[in-house]
């Protein structure tokens, strides 16, 4: 072991290495990433695939003056290791430690905090435009994956960048061969030729001469350019990007440092929009991740020698996702008009079984959440019963489509929002804490949250029956049943469920906080304080009858929700009291603060924000 990595505290240290040492460094980076993620979990496969690309970029660029804007960011571990974060890398995704994604507050080498797809090109173009307005000289590079490139936002950015003609480099990290495959020696030779500074100087001078020909200049230039592009695209697949206004280079072997560095060195001399197509292998350098890149995309701890997940002590309870997965298959067997839609997350959302059972009624539309919503609206208009399974944080990207294409049209689309609330170690870009606030304002929508897996299944069944726009939010957590099925109230639109009697105060809890509320009631009873506990079930419509009964008792009301309190479920309850002119009632909303919640284990974050049963009981006791 050469121990090269330990001497890299910034990209400047990287430039001191001879070229023949860079492959050794890439190996050390991979070993470090595998070691840490095997213990802490994280996004391993994508980061393994971009090691050589990252080394090459930082070897040639002058970061942080030059900017690398990563798309999504789950491929940025090598970037972190090369930009002064090696000593803290063992804290990856821990509360108070390094983020699993680029984070502007963490390092000057991270221009943007990111975690959602397809943002890199647009934000990088903005940086390039600002640079030019200030008269500065630096390079801006946007790195985007082939899956993200399918999104509308990515093409909007490409289209605008080509039109503006800014000095911008877009690197396509193609790890699925979804656009093209490498075409061998001729492609490598052609890239050496067309990135050569002399070639580009001659090309630019030739363009000037041809265009200067009176009357015939522009027509002649266009003819020559089309011939040149046609000849080039017999060999390399860049016509789409050339038509958008980019110079296209590729495909390039993304694991060949000896090829990457000279190509990028020449490309950096250009001052126009450039598109570089790099072919990589997801999970590169770690056998188990190469063989199963889907499982190693985002992993919990595992044995790095065997690749097998480390067993975790736990209840073994089914999760909400497990219940969703089983129920939608059962519903699909009974209803041949039921269709399921996901945005590139069939495994994470629990739709894989449905996809295998009913392939003709399953649609994975890729990372295109706005399209997923409008597509589902079309399915509903056509007489189908669409169920859209999507993470809460990603549905945010479709807000206008929810309003314009579903709510306004009054279409019966069911949205099942997995990962609602605190999701843990992926941090602020992935916490699903805003859905209550942004969904409850939509006219005609029914918004629900189940307390357990059985109630989720009931909500799914009723949601399709009701033939209205419906959203069901549930967490990434155990769906254990605390209340026996025989004692559960039937599910009716807008009807809450009383669970515990008490004369001293009322706890109105939503979804994932219902079990916590029952625990709070038990803690308080030991202090001779009896709390009534009500499972709200619905964010919209509210159970007005239950709220009026609570008001008549005149007891303090404590509202528990795993979402931002600002504009959330508690706000809806207080608005109800205001509308009904109900006064002289004490209401306290206990939710998440008006801030972005950092990364950390869900249990740690609940404790930090005083949302565990013991801490909630202490808060309630202090206010009685």
Overall 3D shape: globular
**What is the terminal-to-terminal distance?**
64 Å
Number of helices: 25
Count of folded domains: 3
Within the largest sheet, what's the order of strands?
Answer: 7-6-8-9-11-10-15
Number of strands: 17
Query: Which oligomeric state applies?
Result: single chain
Portion in helices:
40-55%
CATH topology label of the largest domain? Rossmann fold
**Percent strand:** 5-15%
Outline the low-pLDDT stretches. Answer: 177-184
The class by helix and strand makeup works out as: alpha/beta
Describe the structure.
With 624 residues, the chain is of the alpha/beta class. The chain has three domains: 5-291, Thiamin diphosphate (ThDP)-binding fold, Pyr/PP domains (Rossmann fold), CATH 3.40.50.970; 320-473, Rossmann fold (3-Layer(aba) Sandwich); 496-623, Rossmann fold. It contains 25 helices and 17 strands. The strands form three sheets. A seven-stranded mixed beta sheet has the order 7-6-8-9-11-10-15, sandwiched between helices. A five-stranded parallel beta sheet has the order 1-2-3-5-4, sandwiched between helices. α14 (320-334) packs parallel to α20, α16 runs parallel beside α18 and α21 crosses α25. It is globular. The N and C termini lie far apart (64 Å). The model is unreliable at 177-184 (pLDDT under 50).
Keywords:
624 residues; 5-stranded parallel sheet; globular; Rossmann fold; alpha/beta; 40% helix; 25 helices; 7-stranded mixed sheet
Would you kindly provide a brief summary of this structure?
Helices cover 40% and strands 14% of the residues. The chain is an alpha/beta fold. The chain has a seven-stranded mixed sheet, with helices on both faces. The chain has a five-stranded parallel sheet with strand order 1-2-3-5-4, sandwiched between helices.
């Amino acid at each position: 072991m050469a121990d090269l990595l330990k001497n890299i505290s910034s990209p400047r240290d990287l430039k001191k290495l001879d070229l023949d040492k860079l492959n050794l460094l890439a190996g050390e980076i991979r070993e470090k990433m595998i070691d840490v993620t095997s213990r802490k979990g994280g996004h391993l496969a994508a980061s393994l695939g971009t090691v050589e690309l990252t080394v090459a970029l930082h070897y040639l660029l002058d970061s942080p003056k030059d900017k690398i804007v990563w798309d999504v960011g789950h491929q940025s571990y090598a970037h972190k290791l090369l930009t002064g974060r090696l000593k803290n890398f063992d804290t990856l995704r821990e509360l108070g430690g390094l983020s699993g994604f680029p984070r502007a507050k963490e390092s000057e080498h991270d221009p943007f905090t990111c975690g959602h797809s397809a943002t890199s090109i647009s934000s990088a173009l903005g940086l390039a435009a600002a640079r030019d307005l200030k008269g500065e000289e630096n390079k801006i590079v946007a790195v985007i994956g082939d899956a993200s490139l399918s999104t509308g936002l990515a093409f909007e950015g490409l289209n605008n960048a080509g039109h503006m003609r800014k000095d911008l480099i877009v690197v396509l990290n193609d790890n699925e061969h979804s656009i093209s495959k490498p075409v061998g020696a001729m492609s490598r030779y052609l890239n050496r030729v067309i990135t050569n500074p002399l070639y580009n100087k001659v090309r630019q001078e030739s363009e000037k001469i041809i265009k200067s020909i009176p009357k015939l200049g522009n027509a002649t230039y266009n003819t020559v350019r089309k011939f040149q592009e046609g000849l080039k695209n017999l060999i390399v697949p860049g016509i789409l990007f050339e038509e958008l206004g980019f110079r296209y280079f590729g495909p390039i072997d993304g694991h060949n440092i000896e090829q990457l560095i000279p190509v990028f060195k020449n490309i950096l001399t250009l001052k126009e929009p450039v598109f570089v197509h790099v072919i990589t292998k997801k999970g590169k350098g770690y056998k188990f991740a190469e063989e199963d890149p889907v499982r190693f995309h985002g992993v919990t701890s595992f044995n790095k020698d065997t690749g097998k997940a480390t067993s975790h002590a736990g209840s073994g309870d089914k999760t909400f996702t497990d219940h969703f997965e089983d129920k939608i298959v059962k519903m699909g067997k009974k209803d041949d008009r039921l269709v399921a839609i996901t945005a590139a997350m069939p495994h994470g959302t629990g739709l894989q079984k449905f996809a295998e059972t009913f392939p003709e009624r399953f649609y994975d539309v890729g990372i295109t959440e706005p399209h997923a919503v409008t597509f589902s609206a079309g399915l509903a208009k056509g007489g189908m019963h669409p169920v859209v399974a999507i993470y809460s944080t990603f549905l945010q990207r479709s807000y206008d489509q929810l309003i314009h294409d579903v709510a306004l049209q009054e279409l019966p689309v069911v949205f099942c929002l997995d990962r609602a609330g605190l999701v843990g170690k992926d941090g602020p870009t992935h916490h699903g804490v805003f859905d209550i606030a942004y969904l409850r304002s939509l006219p005609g929508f029914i918004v629900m949250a189940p307390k357990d897996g059985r109630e989720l299944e009931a909500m799914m069944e009723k949601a399709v029956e009701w033939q209205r726009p419906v959203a069901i939010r549930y967490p990434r957590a155990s769906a254990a049943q605390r209340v026996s099925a025989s004692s559960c109230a039937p599910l009716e639109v807008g009807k809450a469920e009383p669970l515990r009697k008490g004369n001293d105060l009322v706890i109105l809890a939503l979804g994932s906080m219902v079990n916590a509320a029952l625990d709070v009631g038990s803690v308080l009873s030991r202090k001779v304080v009896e709390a009534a506990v009500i499972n709200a079930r619905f964010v919209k419509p509210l159970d007005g009858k239950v709220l009026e009964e609570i008001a008549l008792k005149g007891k303090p009301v404590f509202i528990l929700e795993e979402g931002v309190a600002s504009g959330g479920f508690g706000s809806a309850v207080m608005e109800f009291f205001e509308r009904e002119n109900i006064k002289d009632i004490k209401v306290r909303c206990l939710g998440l603060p008006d801030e972005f919640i950092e990364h950390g284990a869900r249990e740690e974050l609940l404790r930090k924000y005083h949302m565990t049963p013991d801490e909630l009981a202490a808060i309630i006791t202090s206010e009685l």
